[in-house]
Amino acid sequence: MAVIPVQRQPLSLAERAYLPQVAAGLRITLKHLFAPKETMQYPEQRPAIPPGYRGVPTLVKDPHGREKCVSCQLCEFVCPPKAIRISPGEVPAGAGRDHVERAPREFDIDMLRCIYCGLCQEVCPEEAIFLQNQYSMSGYSRAEMVNHKDRLYELGGTLPDSFFKWDKKKAAEEHGHAAH
Amino acid sequence: MADFFFQLPLMVQGVLKGLAVIAVMFPIAGACSMAERKVSAWIQGRQGPNRAIPPWFAWVPVLGPALQKLGAFHLLADGLKFLFKEEQIPGQVNRLYFVLAPALAMIPALSTVTVVPLGAYLDAAGQVVPIALAHVDVGLLAVFAVSSLGVYSLILAGWASNSKYAFLGGVRASAQLISYELSLTLAVLPVFLWINAPGTGGTMSLARVVEFQSQPGFWGGAWFIFTMPVSAVVFLIALFAETNRQPFDMPESEADLVGGFHTEYGAFKWSLFFVAEYSNMLVGSAVFILLFLGGWNPLPWISLAKFAGWTGLGGHPLLLGLLSIAILLGKVLAMIFFFMWVRWTVPRFRYDQVMRIGWQKLLPLAIANLVVYAIGIACLAP
Question: Residue A178: which pLDDT band, with cuts at 50, 70 and 90?
């Protein structure tokens, strides 16, 4: 590596007198005084959330309003801080969703444990759990910081989905039965 | 009302006048601390404090939010906080001197204002009469004498705190104030050489200096900053050092000395130091303005008497007096803004740099300036 000696220039008279430099500095700061301010007034103004942001994990429904989670518990097992707790249950009878294998009875995510790693979203075979835009979680007690199933669906809402895996499966089954 | 006031004993009148001045100065000094926060924020591209608002002010349509944006209620909140906070006195301090120091800081800060003329009005004969708490010929000499006592509070605070940062702060304070007092005094000598013609009665009165800057004619109406720029610059720099403002805030220098002399202080005692510093700045800027920036004259070459003649305020001494005080106060606040502006522009000097600037640059400059002006004035004198 070549060593390039840099000649240090002797200070000019104006630089040594210092006062002209102060005046130049004052001009710069005066410009900043009147420049638009950078601060975002947070609760009123919110930052734009970029796509792919990993916020609070939520459960989503498909466009038919069916809960997508089938309580396979993969997310529970993969979750590094063990923030997710699922109690599997049966699909409620008569809702027209009997062909879906299972549904969670309880689905809790403890937001005091969650590290927002996104592994649950990664591992979910049903694309039922997503880390979405919500970034601000607060509460007055530990119990408040646990997101239960209804809250998770409320946060998650519905995401577009054109695949409808379980409908196809049902159709294929019925077709198969008809063929026999 | 006025008759009743003038019937009071002279002592009571003096006390009332003094209290009136303090009642104006104390809140302004407090408000300066908020202005400091806002100016620093704006210069750094931030908004500054703009949240606190009592609910009944939030109901006022335009004024409430405007005051909120300016952080006016943070000032109240801060003041209340300082009042009601727990007063902690560390175990290692000398309690008597520790408690005495902040009070001692306030005394010179508020007593120098007595000899500073604050405005002027025209009497029935059309003569300009300055408004001051005390009309004394020692004027500026008294300001210098009393304000230099202010450093004792810093030394006392630093010494009584019995901790190394506070001690270093106190030592620096004394060294810095002694170094810059010389330049400060030498810088104003040309002004007083000029206004005290040989053979006439000598005076150090600041009102006389303003009188000299409000004469008719080109040279008569010129403020002394135009005729004596070097004096003005040296005085201004020394003033920064005397009031412990950045870039000369050696006694405090929070980067290397935590908080300097006030490291061990908190709550109301700490805020007393703060108010004293701003009061010093207010009086210091007032003196600078009276000496070099025409005092209560609205503009260069436009004296207060001329201004009164144009607007017809000459016959209303009360109105004109208030107007002149407002003009002086406006200039003082502009100077305070300049102090803050410089603070958020120039980095703090090192201790050795402060000493070098004081002794090797400013003092010879002040002496040379004095010699040049002494010769010049001797030649010009009739």
Answer: low
